[in-house]
Write a structure and sequence with these properties.
Blueprint (H helix, E strand, L loop, with lengths): L3 E5 L5 E6 L2 H4 L5 H14 L59 H17 L3 E4 L9 H12 L4 E5 L4 H7 L5 E5 L5 H6 L2 E5 H11 L2
Helix pairs in contact: 2-3, 4-5
Length: about 210
């Protein structure tokens, strides 16, 4: 049975109804696939620029620390050894790539699973239009409260909308995102997903089978 959701306006009033595509919002939820896609996205976001100096890279004197015999202490030839403060690091992190591969079909199926999970949990709100006459964070906070209450929200946009984007960016529990850049991390991070009808149309064309 297809999922039908009310279409709301910016004041939270119902102005219509929309039927969500079953091949996007009613697929079996594959938790393992979503986890794999999430791990890949987080790994690919890592820079991998960490670098700890070895004993050969530490800039300290190469002179023998103290004489070999007669002190009663252990034999040491350099202060660069990892056992000393200021010395090199043994087996420390080195620059590397953390990138992981995942086929496009699997990535898209993971997003479908996340959208289906949101739809099953009443985590999707469809609105007819989202427009602001000028950037106003307070007005946008009122709009989001009318739509989702105190829940955190991911607002999807079909195109660049500077007034809406500037109104959202200072809100702690909200984020805007172009519908074509929808990803598993943001879907799992926020409680509710707010979709204008034009953004829903883009998602249907992008993820529809």
């Amino acid at each position: 049975m297809a999922i039908k959701l009310p279409v709301k306006n910016m004041r939270g009033k119902e102005v219509g109804e929309v039927e969500l595509p079953t091949d996007i919002f009613e697929v079996p939820v594959n938790v393992g696939l979503m986890h794999q896609a999430y791990v890949r996205q987080m790994a690919n976001a890592r820079l991998g620029t960490h670098n700890a100096k070895t004993r050969g890279e530490v800039n300290r004197t190469k002179q023998k620390w103290y004489r070999q015999k007669g002190t009663g202490r252990a034999r040491h030839g350099s202060r660069n050894a990892p056992t000393f403060v200021g010395g090199g690091v043994s087996h420390g992190p080195r620059p590397r790539k953390y990138t992981k591969d995942m086929p496009k079909k699997m990535r898209r199926e993971a997003i479908r699973s996340a959208l289906s999970a949101k739809a099953a949990e009443s985590g999707i709100v469809v609105i007819d239009n989202l427009e602001m006459q000028s950037p106003k964070t307070r007005d946008m906070a009122d709009v989001l409260y009318n739509l989702v209450g105190d829940a955190s929200a991911l607002v999807l946009l079909a195109d660049v909308n500077e007034n809406v984007q500037l109104s959202i960016r200072n809100l702690d529990d909200a984020r805007y995102l172009r519908a074509m850049y929808l990803n598993i991390r943001d879907l799992l991070k926020y409680d509710m997903v707010i979709m204008p009808l034009d953004a829903l149309e883009q998602i249907t064309g992008w993820l529809g089978k």
